[in-house]
Amino acid sequence: DQQVKQNSPSLSVQEGRISILNCDYTNSMFDYFLWYKKYPAEGPTFLISISSIKDKNEDGRFTVFLNKSAKHLSLHIVPSQPGDSAVYFCAASEYGQNFVFGPGTRLSVLP
Amino acid sequence: GEEVAQTPKHLVRGEGQKAKLYCAPIKGHSYVFWYQQVLKNEFKFLISFQNENVFDETGMPKERFSAKCLPNSPCSLEIQATKLEDSAVYFCASSQSSGRNNQPQHFGDGTRLSIL
Question: Which residue of A19, A77, A99, B63 has the smallest Cβ count within 10 Å?
Answer without folding.
Answer: B63
